[in-house]
Every structure is written in structure tokens, then in C-alpha cells.
Write a structure and sequence with these properties.
Blueprint (H helix, E strand, L loop, with lengths): L4 H19 L9 H10 L3 E2 H8 L3 H13 L3 E5 L7 E5 L1 H22 L4 H18 L2 H4 L1
Antiparallel strand pairs: 1-3, 2-3
Helix pairs in contact: 1-5, 2-5
Length: 143
């Protein structure tokens, strides 16, 4: 296995995503949907621009993901305060159930992957990942 920074970062993300999707295989979610459900679990009623930024998904890609989620009855979109420019996205009851399943899978997998790493090293890892992410965040996406 390549031990370069870029390879390990990409491989970690890809392997984690594969494990998450394998554990969620029976619940009918497609790529991108678990991330959106997880985000909405913490930020229900967000506008699409905030969801895209929070999930690090391109807005055009997110539109497709949300359309499929709406077709499955996981979310609904609602205009608030008469503002037609931004629809707020909410979880339906079915979406809340899927979100709880996603959250449990993410927590279980995180615990499994970190259980042999001492707490101090976990804290350093998280701090380093936060610094790396903050250097890569496209500020235009967040505005």
C-alpha cells in the first residue's frame, strides 16, 4: 500500500464510504444520501446551499440527490417566509428513521475503527483532520 499522504487520505475516505454503504445496503440508500441524512439530522430545515456546503457536495449534484430522496419520501422541501428563492429541506418521518439508522452505522463503524487507538492519539488525529479540512474548504462554497 502506498504510504503517501494523498493516497492514505483518499483510500481512507473510499474504504470508509464502502463500509458504510455495505452496512446500509438493505435500506435502499444510494451514494450521497447517508451524508445528507446525517447532516439533516443535525440541521433539519436547512436550505440547499447550506446542505451542499455542510456535506461538501456540489450544488448540482445535491439537487439530484435531494430529488431522489424526495421521490423516496425521505425529505420534503418547503418555502418559508414567502421566499421563493430558497426552499428549506426537512426530513419526513421515514427520513428520520433512515437518519437514525445512518447515525448508528456511522457511530458503530467509528467505534470499531478507533477502538485500538488510544484516546490521546484519537484527539490528535481529529485535530489534524480538522486543520487539513479547514485548509481545503472552498470559502466561495460557504458564502
Amino acid at each position: 500500500m502506498d504510504t503517501s499522504f494523498h493516497y492514505l487520505l483518499m483510500a481512507s475516505q473510499s474504504l470508509f464510504q464502502r463500509k458504510v454503504m455495505a452496512r446500509l445496503a438493505d435500506c435502499g440508500l444510494t451514494a450521497g444520501q447517508p451524508k445528507v441524512l446525517d447532516y439533516l439530522g443535525l440541521h433539519d430545515g436547512s436550505v440547499q446551499k447550506a446542505i451542499a456546503a455542510g456535506c461538501q457536495i456540489e450544488p448540482a449534484t445535491l439537487t439530484g440527490i435531494l430529488n431522489r430522496m424526495e421521490e423516496k419520501g425521505l425529505i420534503y422541501r418547503q418555502m418559508e417566509n414567502g421566499d421563493r428563492r430558497s426552499l428549506h429541506v426537512y426530513l419526513t418521518q421515514a427520513g428520520k428513521q433512515k437518519q437514525q439508522l445512518v447515525r448508528q452505522v456511522l457511530e458503530d463503524l467509528t467505534q470499531e475503527l478507533l477502538m485500538d487507538i488510544p484516546l490521546e492519539e484519537q484527539q490528535v488525529l481529529m485535530a489534524c483532520l480538522m486543520r487539513i479540512c479547514s485548509k481545503m474548504i472552498d470559502t466561495e462554497v460557504l458564502q
